[in-house]
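Dear colleagues,

For the upcoming journal club I promised to circulate an example of a predicted protein-ligand complex. I picked one with flavin mononucleotide because it came up in last month's discussion. The inputs are reproduced below in full, followed by the predicted structure.
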Amino acid sequence: MVALKNDSELEVTERTFDPLRTPYEVDELTFPAEGSLAEQYTHLLRYAILAPSSYNTQPWKFRLFDNGIAVYADYTRRLPVADPNSRELLMGVGAAIMNLRIAAAHFGFDCRVDYNYSGDSELPIAFASVERSLSHKTPDDSVEKLFSAIAKRHTNRNPFLMARVPEAVISRLSNLGGDADASLFFSTDATKNTTVAHLVAAAERVQQGDTQFRKELAEWIRPNKTHKSDGMTGAAFGVSDVTSTLASWAIKTIDMSNLRARHDERLCLEAPALLVLYGEDSVPTWLAVGEVMEKILLTLTRDGLQFSFFNMPIELPEARLELRKLIGVKSWPQLLLRIGYSLEKPAPSPRRPVEECIVK
Ligand SMILES: Cc1cc2nc3c(=O)[nH]c(=O)nc-3n(C[C@H](O)[C@H](O)[C@H](O)COP(=O)(O)O)c2cc1C
């Protein structure tokens, strides 16, 4: 690549493989319209794998068939300490399925997803029947807007501005939940948000004070210039390149629970809006929450808003009960998000190459 540095100077730089950016450069113009079904399905999956997942474990596998794509939950990537029931793991799989649905619609396919809740981890958790749409309709505007947000969606853990989240955004988001499986609760109420912030801090203290929790977390923390294609880099937490080389060791070795709790409590207190997704505790609900979550995150991205997750109080039974009381629902909080605006750009997280996620 040739870059103009100033009027007289030309700088020649080599384009090197960048594990943080490359997966996000997926180009819709490279869709293999004349290629085989397998090549076309693989292209759709390039969007599916950009979904969020707890600790960026990317707990999904796919198998290609003539009539569609089998989706597996990859339990070898589970987090036994933070997520013993694979609740969050299945939300990640649900999010990948939502991206697949949106990409399929964008490229002119009909996509029907049938879930399989048998509990047998050897069987696919879902089968996406994907076939060329006979209607030849151009995908509607809402699909196109979500599609264009897939490669731009990143978790943003920076402080947010004090700017309010417009009512119009909240009501647009509210319409995305609402079915029996996954419902939404918003709070822009300072008193409620303060209570949630205290719950977040208390849960963070418990988790970060637990050596087993820190050991598991440390296994998924990467230096910024990592060659690994999963896990969370220091950059995703605003940590410099040098410091990021020590982050995994520091998390495992040093109890920073008070520091972490105060930091997250402040972020939560300053959040213009908090959002809880809630529903029953069951495999179908966790997958549905994952699908709705991804639609919410893509809608926020499209509207220029940022988000990050505060799932600590939902991972601990006592704190979860408190949160449930606070939002006044009969089922269970499944996901807690902070929503707002930020001037700071989030750092993209790595992704495994799609080929690595496809089993023969
Ligand atoms: C179900 C679920 C729970 C999550 N919980 C947290 C959390 O409690 N704290 C956090 O910082 N990130 C959380 N994340 C965000 C992931 O760490 C993030 O999605 C992953 O590192 C990939 O980064 P990306 O979202 O920028 O693609 C969660 C993600 C999912 C899907």
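Two points we might discuss: Residues 222 and 233 are 5 Å apart (CA to CA). The radius of gyration is 21 Å.

See you all on Thursday,
B. R.
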